[in-house]
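PROTOCOL LOG
Step 1. Enter all chains and additional molecules of the complex.
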Amino acid sequence: MILFLKKVMIEADVYKIPRARIETVEFLQTLIIDKKIKSILEIGTGNGFSSIYFAQIPCVQNVYTCEMDPFRITLCEQNVKYFNKINFFPINFFEFNENIVVDLIFIDGTKRMYKDFFEYSQKFSHKNTLFVSDNLNFKNHLEDNENLEYKYKRITNKIDEYIDFLKKNKNFHTDFYFDNGDGIAVTKRAINN
Ligand SMILES: C[S@@+](CC[C@H](N)C(=O)[O-])C[C@H]1O[C@@H](n2cnc3c(N)ncnc32)[C@H](O)[C@@H]1O
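Step 2. Run joint prediction.
Step 3. Record the structure below.
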């Protein structure tokens, strides 16, 4: 890992900014190289760790990424400014309206809104775009599922609903990798769609 990326990773951990796990970005790197992914749209930049990781992969030409938290925006602007491939948008993803279509969409924002992200991101996709959703194992990190705070219960229910939505969606096919990183789904359009 390049030294600068390590600095960004440590910064995320110091400020308790959620970031993709190393296993997750490694998994994504393999997928990106294998599928010759050129363009990525990321929902949730954090302080820029995963964007910078993607920008290091030679076949990637453009990373578009949105972050709406003011403090994270400040950190991110400092971190991504050295990377020409990264197009940073300090906005709520639902305000993102660039005229682009990308090869891969990385869904990594607020967990309870994954289905909304998936639906809004359709307009930035083509027939072979991959939709990658992270953190599907969120509930495994909560110790006592019986006595969860309402907030966490709501998130775990929403993630379960999202998994179910992907499983039942006839227009898309999803491969689930629950043993990888923090639980990853890779979704693509069904052949006849
Ligand atoms: C898990 S972190 C992203 C980590 C980053 N992808 C990485 O691995 O380094 C999720 C981020 O999404 C941001 N976020 C959540 N909902 C968003 C939205 N609707 N638009 C833009 N950013 C959002 C949060 O503020 C948070 O910083």
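Step 4. Note key features.
The mean pLDDT is 93.
Residues 68 and 91 are 5 Å apart (CA to CA).
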